[in-house]
Write a structure and sequence with these properties.
The protein is mainly alpha-helical. It contains 15 helices and 4 strands.
């Protein structure tokens, strides 16, 4: 234990020598939050302004949505969307005349949304509402029949504003990159053959692995969970919702992605290759998980989104922020726990088999 603490202490000294990285991370996070919030403010912040539009629809009697028609349309109208029912209408003609902004044709088991390029935001809003209707219908009918279902109201799901959304999302994304702090350590060790000296000094593989892991985790929590979160929360209109859930999930994210990123540094001898591959995988996870485009309005299908651990983290924190809770909390904890265990085991195995780490 004393040997482990001594190594960790020395690693932390090395990391703090790299002051540029410690300064760049908070600044980069703030700049990215500001840029994305500005770029997407029209989509997210003006939902109340664009909600006052007309939506036409056709609803055949044999449609699976027919029994929910009144509830759905009442929900739309409560949000400022005027709904008009048609029979055998030509959606494109009605929209071109300006009578209706968006048109929905409900069929037996599906629906089709019509809207021109100028009404993309309105189309996305209708698409999002109906997507959640489908999800709730799927939940209601699992193991039951329509005759046994009693519906009193259709739940309205709140969406996050741009600063709040990207403030949370970018804290998570930069936290997933926390192992970049270790690059200076690995470069120094390989230049001075420190890894071999550890082996000669009887430092076991577990000690060598945990010293790097704990050093990186301490820095990630201090710099990115505490400092970066504090800066973003103070500069932007970001709400945590439940502080225990907010910081608890951030710490679990640090634990999981420290283990994840460390695998790349241990696996490859070339630092450029390690960092390059790490960034590629995390860019994909971020792209799918809503880091660069909101997961609420993205065209990526749900099964693909679920491949990204960042999707579970992002959705949990954003939904908790605006709604007070999230149904993804349990899944998020499970995903991060599995990622941590698997990557730590891989890291320890790689460390025990490589002489230079």
């Amino acid at each position: 234990m004393n040997k482990l603490l001594v190594i960790i202490k020395n690693y932390l000294k090395l990391i703090f020598r790299n002051k540029v990285m410690i300064i760049v991370v908070p600044i980069a996070t703030v700049l990215v939050v500001a840029a994305l919030a500005n770029a997407f403010h029209t989509l997210l912040d003006t939902n109340d302004d664009v909600a006052d539009f007309k939506m036409g629809y056709e609803m055949p009697a044999d449609s699976k949505y027919a029994f929910m028609e009144n509830i759905m349309m009442s929900s739309f109208e409560e949000q400022g969307v005027e709904t008009v029912e048609y029979e055998k209408a030509d959606p494109e003609e009605i929209i071109s005349k300006g009578d209706i902004d968006v048109f929905v044709t409900f069929e037996k088991d599906s629906y089709h949304i019509y809207g021109d390029d100028k009404k993309e935001l309105q189309v996305r809003i209708v698409q999002y509402v109906l997507f959640n209707v489908d999800k709730r219908m799927d939940t209601m009918f699992v193991g039951s029949s329509a005759n046994n279902v009693k519906i009193s109201s259709l739940e309205t799901i709140k969406t996050s504003e741009a600063e709040n959304y990207y403030g949370i999302i970018e804290i998570v994304y930069f936290l997933s990159l926390c192992t970049v702090f270790l690059s200076f350590i690995f470069q120094t060790e390989r230049q001075n053959s420190i890894g071999i000296r550890f082996r000669v000094g009887n430092a076991g593989s577990f000690t060598r692995y945990m010293s790097k892991y704990i050093s990186c985790l301490v820095i990630a929590i201090l710099i990115q969970v505490v400092l970066v979160s504090g800066v973003v929360l103070s500069l932007f209109d970001v709400t945590m919702g439940n502080p225990v859930v907010f910081f608890g999930i951030l710490i679990l994210t640090a634990i999981a992605f420290t283990a994840y990123g460390l695998v790349f540094f241990l696996l490859f001898n070339n630092m450029a290759v390690s960092i390059g591959l790490l960034f590629m995988t995390l860019w994909f996870a971020g792209f799918v998980g809503g880091t660069f485009e909101t997961y609420m309005y993205t065209v990526i299908t749900e099964p693909i989104k679920r491949l990204s651990p960042l999707y579970y983290v992002n959705r949990t924190l954003v939904e908790t922020s605006v709604n007070g809770s999230s149904s993804y909390l349990g899944s998020c904890i499970v995903v991060l726990s599995v990622l941590t265990v698997v990557c730590m085991l891989l890291g320890i195995i790689i460390t025990s088999r490589k002489k230079e780490v």
